[in-house]
Amino acid sequence: MADLPTNERLYIWGRNLFQQQQEPVVWAGSVLAATARKMGRSPEIDEALILAEREDQWPRGREVFDRIRRRSLSREDPLAEEHALYFALAELVAKLAHNAAGQQPPFDHDSGWRVGPTAYRLAATTDDPELHERLAQALGGWPQDV
């Protein structure tokens, strides 16, 4: 696998990581929560965290995704790179909740595979060792060959 480009290795790692999860929405929420502890909260992030914690809220996944996406793409208050990745994690939580609830139309089948790579990229944009450690714990470790 070492001969593959970095993005492809991250994608494969993310797929394998996601496929190991017993409760994928809860796991993705724990990655988002680990990030929230260091990067702060917003109404959109809070909604994604609630989705991850409460299965009865999963059918609201698309609605929450739309709110997060509107904030992510706001031209009036653009997000810095690390916050854009943070909101991308929240979007993935909303996508996973929507899909797990069986709502139609589903988001991409590989949405969950992107949780690990997005968290990896977020950690790479910061010099915060505590955030790196929190993310590593929530993910279950970092890829060895990237």
Q: How do the strands and helices of this protein lay out in sequence?
A:
Elements: H1 6-19, H2 24-39, H3 43-53, H4 61-72, H5 81-100, H6 115-124, H7 129-139
Q: Strand percentage, roughly?
A: under 5%
Structural class: mainly alpha
- The helix content is 55-70%
General shape: globular
Q: What Rg is obtained from the alpha carbons, in whole angstroms?
A: 14 Å
Mean pLDDT: 94
- Give the H and E element order: HHHHHHH
Count, helices: 7
Which consecutive residue ranges, at least 5 long each, have pLDDT under 50? none
Q: Please give the largest β-sheet.
A: none
Terminal CA distance reads: 9 Å
- Strand count: 0
Summarize the structure.
With 146 residues, the chain is mostly helical. The chain contains seven helices and no strands.
Describe this structure in words.
This protein is mainly α and 146 residues long. The chain has seven helices and no strands. It has helices at 6-19, 24-39, 43-53, 61-72, 81-100, 115-124, 129-139. The radius of gyration is 14 Å and the shape is globular. The termini are close together. The model has no long low-confidence stretch (mean pLDDT 94).
Key structural traits:
146 residues; mainly alpha
